[in-house]
Amino acid sequence: MILTNVCYYTIPLISVMFAGHLGELELAGATLANSWATVTGFALMANQWNSLYVGLEGDELNRKSK
């Protein structure tokens, strides 16, 4: 789990560091892209979890009603 967290934070850090060597505009673009990807990934993950939870809850209610 520790290795996963290190990789999770290190990969965007390294890409932003490389973009920083190219220039300020590239650094800003890389930072915005990483932020947007992270937020979108969390939103999609939360949405899928919510859909799964609602689906399982509905399935459980259908089983009890039979």
From TrEMBL:
GO cellular component annotations of the record: membrane
Name of the featured protein: Protein DETOXIFICATION 19-like
Classification via Pfam families: MatE (PF01554)
Record GO terms (molecular function): antiporter activity; xenobiotic transmembrane transporter activity
Family affiliation: Belongs to the multi antimicrobial extrusion (MATE) (TC 2.A.66.1) family.
Species of origin: Prunus yedoensis var. nudiflora
InterPro entries from the UniProt entry: MATE_fam
